[in-house]
Amino acid sequence: TVDFLEAFGVSSVPSTCRSECLLMSVAFGASMTPLKKRIEAHMKRPPQSGYDRPLNVEIGFYLESLGNFRETQMTFDTDMYMYMSWRDSTLNHSDEQHIMVNDNDIRNQMWLPDLYFANAKTAQFHHVTIPNFSMFIAKDGTIAYSCRVTLTVACNLDLKDYPMDVQNCQIRILSYAYIASAVNVTWFKKSAIQYNPEISLPEYEIISITPAYCNGTYRYAVMPNSYRVDQFSCLVANIRLHRSIGYTLVQSYFPTGLIVIISWVSFWIDRAAVPARVTLSFSTMLSLTTLGNGLRYGLPQVSYAKAIDFWFGGCMLFVFCSLLEFAVVNSYMRQSERNDKLSGKSLRTKGKKNIKEGDSEGGIEKKRDVREFRSDSQVGQVLIENPDQVSSRNLAEHHAQLSRKYSSMALSIDKACRYGFPAAFIVWNIAYWSYYLSTER
After folding, report:
1. For the Neurotransmitter-gated ion-channel ligand-binding domain, which residue ranges apply (predicted)?
2. N or C: which end of the chain has fewer CB within 10 A?
3. What percent of the chain has pLDDT above 70?
4. Residue 116 pLDDT level (bands cut at 50, 70, 90)
């Protein structure tokens, strides 16, 4: 206790007081007995600091523990030692030593600052093994009071940059009934807030915990037809935290990135292996959706997109584009197969025409496919082909060319995507991480 009082600017307790103060608080010696009577005479009355002057109360605290941040409920827990100091001239005494009060009945008779934690959902004092408080009264009536408090504090988390977010949580302290002109509450001028250096948070790193002041203008004395507005003392402890991204990297970013990379395997699978490519594309899409849904269950349903949502959206887009790529390639391959079949059909039609029996006219056999040879000195030959034969052969060659063209286009798309998708994914990663990890954010 002596170390805490010195840290918060309160006069230190001499070592000789450790036994004497305890004796006074238990036996009520010469100094404590009249002091107790004065406490009873001024029970629960606020000290008077002078005409038109507010009573100055200085406070500070030491955070013993901090943690249990719940994103879905937007709360966190803290265990702290709270320190308050003010002067009550009615408690002056002649003893050179500080008088220690550890009797709960005496404390309940004294005036204490009516401070409360405005954004605390629950708050409790500790009573094991005895009520956790200490009080020292200096010779001039200056009181040093400390107690241990556990709070569940509301914190409006801004998850737009999750999981690279920096959170600013506050502990707001106000005077409940006394306006600032009556009781002026301020921070200790030196080392107002300290915290346990051994505090280790699983998801966050503490950047800073600093004291500040807030606007305490509120309505009070509210009646059916009137109310008053004045300034209340309002103090705030700003807790600045940076989220550790390691857990989310392992649980979300790495698996989804690998799923995207696995989806590129379809570009290397044979274009005709339709079942294999379809299975791979839909499996990666389903796995990515499952991972995304699992992450959302641990976060509140906010009305804006988070950084992790943009990542999942980008990964989903890459997987979906690989599925679209297969649809385009498969369409070209079906066109190639169709033209290949038409080419074969044209050739078969041509063969049938070549062997078709013709009728005889004038004792000379006449065929559709006629090759008439003229002899000019028995050396020259003239080949005359039937127009139907030319048409069938040209049509077959045309379909064969289309078949090769569509097959070549499908292969070209696959080859382009083998390198285009990884390059685009790298560019996407550079843009994404540069934006969210920039120091300006």
Report:
1. 46-244
2. C
3. 75
4. very high
Q: In what order do the strands lie in the sheet with 166-175?
A: 115-117, 166-175, 234-243, 204-213
CA distance 146 to 139: 18
Distance CA 85, CA 102 (A): 16
Instruction: Give kind and range of the element (H or E) at residue 361.
Output: strand 360-361
Residue 389 has a pLDDT of 52
CA dihedral 23, 124, 204, 287 (to 10 degrees): 150
Pairing mode, if any, of strands 75-87 and 142-154? antiparallel
Looking only at the bridges linking them, the beta strands covering 193-195 and 55-70 are: parallel
pLDDT tens profile 255-313: 999 999 999 998 988 877 888 888 898 899 899 988 888 877 777 788 889 999 999 99
3-state secondary structure of 206: strand
CATH 2.40.128.110 fits 247-356+369-436, yes or no: no
Residues of the chain with CATH 1.20.58.390: 247-356+369-436
Decide if 271 contacts 414 (C-beta within 8 A).
yes
Q: Give CATH for domain 2-244.
A: 2.70.170.10
The model's pLDDT over 159-217, given as tens digits with 9 standing for 90+, comes to 899 999 999 999 999 999 999 989 999 999 999 999 999 999 988 999 999 999 999 99
Q: In whole angstroms, what is the distance from residue 299 CA to residue 159 CA?
A: 9
> Do residues 92 and 143 make contact, with C-beta atoms less than 8 angstroms apart?
no
Q: Who's near 215: CB < 8 A, 6+ residues apart?
A: 234
If you write DSSP's letter for every residue of 125-163 in order, what string do you get?
Answer: E--SSS--EEEEE-TTSEEEEEEEEEEEEE-----TTTT
**Regarding beta strands 133-137 and 115-117, do their DSSP bridges make them parallel or antiparallel, or are they unpaired?**
unpaired
Tokens for 174, please give them. 């106000």
Take residue 362 and report the two structure tokens written for it: 């004038």
Q: How far apart are CA 90 and CA 111, in angstroms?
A: 11
Comparing CA positions, the residue from 154, 150, 151 lying closest to residue 72 is 154
pLDDT band at 12 (very low <50, low <70, confident <90, very high): very low
Where does the chain hold its CATH 2.70.170.10 domain(s)? 2-244
Q: What is the pTM of this model?
A: 0.73
- From the list 225, 182, 249, 214, the residue with the least C-alpha distance to 46 is 182
User: What integer pLDDT is reported at residue 147 of this predicted model?
Assistant: 95
Return the structure tokens found at 231: 């300034």
DSSP codes, 67-122: EEEETTTTEEEEEEEEEEEEE-GGG--S-SSPEEE--HHHHHHS----EEETTEEE
